[in-house]
Design goal:
CATH topology: Rossmann fold
Strand content: 25-35%
Main location: cytoplasm
Number of domains: 1
GO molecular function: ATP binding; glutaminase activity; phosphoribosylformylglycinamidine synthase activity
CATH architecture: 3-Layer(aba) Sandwich
Strand order of the largest sheet: 2-1-3-4-11-10-9-6-7
Largest sheet: 9 strands, mixed
Organism: Lactobacillus kalixensis DSM 16043
Number of strands: 11
Distance between the termini: 9 Å
Low-confidence stretches: none
EC number: 6.3.5.3, 3.5.1.2
Shape: globular
Radius of gyration: 16 Å
Subcellular location: Cytoplasm
CATH class: Alpha Beta
Length: 223
């Protein structure tokens, strides 16, 4: 399985994402510039966290027009895996691969801490190494992480089991339905605000993010 980690101007979690695959799991992963127009040969693409284009206008709004975006769209259409974490999630909503939007945290402050989550759907290609309703702890670091969608969209997400991760115990940003991560109907596109790549080694404080990366590689072996 060959994995691409896209680097935008302002990305700051691209190295974390790369090393989770490369150093921890010895996977075949490569950095790809936002300037590129093709992701041919890759089986998965990850859009990392950070502040692409300085979050000007709003988070992810400018990155959505980068050269690489059409290639990301193509991969999603082909059923290949697309992962967006934090700013990557914001980009996925801006480009329409996932419904809804991410707005300013209710506190209007940047929030950086560990968040308690529950795995709501353990049947996606990103979550098969988790147990259904497993409670995990994953770091968050965002200022615009409050998930918003109208009631019709929220009802559809719940009905189709597209809510993959949900905040429990404490909602850190005001996300509707306590949503921390969602997937598309097909299940091959996942967007989440928490940072699993920061929870893949005990020395980092925990390994609750590691099953996500193992799930991805397992899905690649089956493909």
């Amino acid at each position: 399985m060959k994995i691409a980690v896209v680097v935008f101007p302002g990305s700051n979690c691209d190295v974390d994402m790369y090393e989770a695959f490369h150093s921890v799991l010895k996977a075949d992963v490569k950095y790809v510039s936002y300037k590129e127009k093709s992701l041919d040969g890759f089986d998965m693409v990850a859009l990392p966290g950070g502040f692409s284009y300085g979050d000007y206008l709003r988070a992810g709004a400018i990155a959505r027009f980068s050269n690489i975006i059409l290639a990301v769209q193509k991969m999603a259409d082909e059923g290949k895996l697309v992962l967006g974490v934090c700013n990557g999630f914001q980009i996925l909503t801006e480009m329409g691969l996932l419904p809804g939007a991410l707005k300013r945290n209710d506190s209007l402050q940047f929030v950086c801490k560990d968040a308690d989550l529950r795995v709501e759907n353990a049947k996606t290609p990103f979550t098969t190494e988790y147990q259904e309703y497993q409670e995990i702890k994953i770091p968050i670091a965002h200022g615009e992480g409050s998930y918003y969608a109208d009631e019709d969209v929220l009802d559809e997400l719940e009905k189709n089991n597209q809510v993959v991760f949900r905040y429990i115990k404490n909602n850190p940003n005001g996300s509707l339905h306590d949503i921390a991560g969602i997937c598309n109907k097909r299940g091959n596109v996942l967007g989440m605000m928490p940072h699993p790549e920061r929870a893949v080694e005990a020395i980092l404080g925990g390994v609750d993010g590691l099953p996500l990366f193992k799930s991805v590689l397992k899905a690649g072996v089956k493909a």
